[in-house]
User: What shape does this take?
Amino acid sequence: MVNLEELKSEIKRVLGEGKVKYFIGYRRSTGGLPAAPFFMKETEDVERLIWDPTCIANLTRFLDDEKKRKARQKEPDTRPIGIIVKGCDSRAINVLLQEEFIKREDVYIVGVSCEHSGMVDEKKLAAKMKGKAVAQVDFAGKDNFAVTAADGEKTGIPAAEVLAGRCVECKVDYPVVRDVTFGEELARSPGNAFKSVEKIEAMSVAERWDFWKEQFDKCIRCYACRSVCPMCYCDECVVDTINFAVTAQTGAKEKAQKIKWIEKSPATSENFFYHMVRAMHLAGRCVDCGECERVCPVDIPLRFLNKKMEKEAKELFDYDVGMNPELPSLVSSFRDEDAEDFIR
Amino acid sequence: MKRTGVFICHCGINIARTVDVKKVAEELANYPGVAHSEDYIYMCSDPGQNKIIDAIKENNLDRVVVSCCSPTLHETTFRNACKAAGLNQYLCEIGNIREQCSWVHEDREKATEKAIKITKSTVQRLLRNEALEPISVPVTRRSLVIGGGIAGIQSALDLANSGYEVVLVERSPSIGGHMIQLSETFPTLDCSQCILTPKMVEASKHPNIKLMTYSEVEDVSGYVGNFKVKIRKKPTYVDPNKCVLCDECSKVCPVVVPDEFDLGLTGRNAIYIPFPQAIPATYTLDSKNCPGLVPIACGKCADVCEAGAIDFDMKEEIIEEEVGTIITATGFDLYGKENMAEYGYGKYADVLDGLQFERLLSASGPTGGKVLRPSDHKVPKEVVFIQCSGSRDPEMHCAYCSKICCMYTAKHAMLYQHNVHGGQSYVFYIDIRSGGKGYEEFVQRAVEDDGVVYLRGKVSKIFEEDNKIKVWGVDTLTGKNIEIDADMVVLAMAMRPSDGMSELTKKLKIAVDKDGFLSEAHPKLKPVESVTAGMFLAGAAQAPKDIPEAVAQASGAAAKAITILSQEQLYHSPAVAEVNLNLCTGCGMCVDVCPYDAISLEDGKAAVNDVLCEGCGTCAATCLRAAIQTRNLTPLQVHEMIKASLGG
Amino acid sequence: MAEEFEPKIVAFLCKWCSSAGSDLAGVSRMKYPPNVVPITVMCSGSVSPLYILSAFNQGADGVLVSGCHPGDCHYIEGNYYARRRIALVRKLLQYVGLEPQRFQMSWVSAAEGQKYTQVIQDFVDTLKPLGAQKKLRRKK
Assistant: This one.
């Protein structure tokens, strides 16, 4: 059980000692259920820190932003950033370490265990509460949540009924890289980590096409998925024809090399291209934190797409994403025995 | 606006028969970026090339596409023509409309359509080509030869006699390799030592050869023309300049271990000379078997050495050498004893391998050239030779043919018949492979003149009984079971790459094949080159081979090395990877995938060593940020080529 | 009678094996349908997933990637990286509902003119009944 007061005092200690530049955690959101990211600079900020099943956001995205900010500064504060991570978030840190995007000494990692349950899916909870406003959700022992409605009524809900999809299929619900952990480090045993993917795999070719066409027809290419993703840290997205990373150093030759792989318009074919390239670029890197899916304004089940690559990495190449930062990346390595039955 | 010239070749009727070349030229004339388009019967002819040169001048062309045969044939021709007209050679590209179009299609209309797409696609690529200059690299004009067997010695001598310095590294205390262990050589029966020792002496005395025995290659870095090699010179504890070969030291040495040179048929002391004609002519103290050097446990050898040649304080040295080329000639070893338990090898003293039998036949061998059984020193009256022991057996052993065993077994049987009058030799064989000058005649001589009995079949069982080695087998020609009460069995063991080869190839970064032999760059046309530029192969390290083949390959490797060493500068294709520092995040995936170690991270960004880069582009396909690409075949170029290929 | 559908195929051939194998098919005067426009790249390892997706986006009915056999790569191991990368692209294309027959990979050595011919012939035969690839193609 994560003791919030102990967690707070650890963060206060670290902030108080001036060991970190700031600390990223969660606070109650001013509107809506999911906890908001919370940047704590002073020890008194820490009072507002929360830890409950609404802390669904993957805060590691902010490490990308911090790195870029630091790169722009002339005399940057080189102290590490403190950050609270769940199991999935910690795997994202491992990938960032693997890709040398951040260094281990750049982060002070406070890991929290997901208490053998996980995070709440806002939509599922709303459905379960039949529209009744929710004020607070708390962990209530293994596989249970305690929900307090806005009117003060308290209900116990089995976690399984309102758990976020990512948590249902979670493989590692405790932090795999951290400086200190709160809560128990017990690996959960998921029923089937790839159930959602298998459902789509079981469809016929035509059904699969219809399924994804319906999804990508909706995409407005707002790029929220990319913006929230800790792995989409490129300055310039290879398929984005709008946001070229043009700097003062960008020469004419480089500008001339920019490729318009797809049209700006969110036509289905172009949306497919964008999401498939993103899936390829996330292969062996996506830790299924589910943030892209959560922030999608048009409800595209992006986890199902990106998780497919995680499944293939595991099944074809026995590659586990984000478990060992020392290993080479999925696509920058091979084994002699890699499957080639598909090659003529 | 770019001004491309397009030239469509008829190739006589080779292209023109199926491709409407006029139509292709017309179609291209109206293509954006094309300023001139024409067709001609033979573009590669002198008048054809002149057409290109004239058109460049007359029409002020700034780049040229020639649609003709495969670029492997005339790319250089047309690039040179462009150069002659003052164009950069990399502003000329070839569209392949013969091998990949006119020759493989029959439908004239469709073939023409395809030829247009191919040509347009080539134009699209070319429009985005940069003018580049070949990268020049200075050459260190000396060579390393690894391995002091016959192949290594031959390569070193050829290089040295051509005026280049050679560092010849041999890991054992003497050069000579396996050839120096042999008795006589097929098919002429020359004495092996008599023909090899003069070469050994020549190598050791040659002013251009730096001989480093008892030394191993520790590390190799750099690239063609500019390798840096670290060589570990192990201490011999004997100063070769002082040693007078009096042999007093080994007489007093209390240690006796199996002798490598005689393959365990005799013993040697911890301080020893491998064989009397060893080069360098000196003793070596084998520290592994010496009772103790630190502190000195025995010291008797130093006590008796009047020359004062023994120096217990001698230390291992790491010597660095710079060379331009490397020839690997590390030879072979025999397939391990432990693998042939089915033939009682290693279990029965009188079951020998081919090299051991060579020692028995050798005048300088343990028996002074008499064939005697190791177990009781009696003359064996019946000897069974078994070919393909470990070779041509994909299920149990090596799948490949070891090539030389048919011949040396015939020689063994023949020499045995000469040696032991009234003796009888039998050879079990699968096939007799006697391709080679005088080889078939040699085998026939063994059968007809010397009475060697050849039995086609495999041996099923070997066991010792009543002081005999019983050999059971089947003669598949008669279908009869054969039982021979032999006095000695000689196994023609498979050849395999010498011990330590895989560690060495990792240091050299050269490839090996599935059996562990060195891979040549091309099985037909580059048999002495490795895939790494500047590294060459010689001798049995590349595949089982006999002495003349090893020598020929060694001379070939030396000649190939000289093609590099004879130049002051080397030129390297400039179509190498380049990094866009704005986009690179320093993830290092390109570093992981580069087969040439050409990419490193510098200040958190990828940096390409142009000289090491071969331009394969695997880094570019791996990079998630499109921050690295190969010059003149960039993603943008491919994107435009795809478009043109699809008629867009 | 309507004209038979002719699939458009983009083939990425590595320079050292597959393009050379294709040249050999030509030298040997073997015959195969003209539906393929080859793009010669240095190594199958240089074929980015972007190339494959772009070919489909630009209207290819089929895409082929062909390289040297394992162990024969001119660049030692580029084809091993290609094998892994292409396996992933292939799985993804199938997963979103593209007909699996539309994307193929082959090993064709410089000596395998016959194999190249057969690969192309079979590819064209497989693609014909599928008709035009409209799923991933950009609407004009």
Summary: Residues 108-127 of chain B form the longest helix (20 residues). Chain B touches chain A through 23 residues (CB under 8 Å).
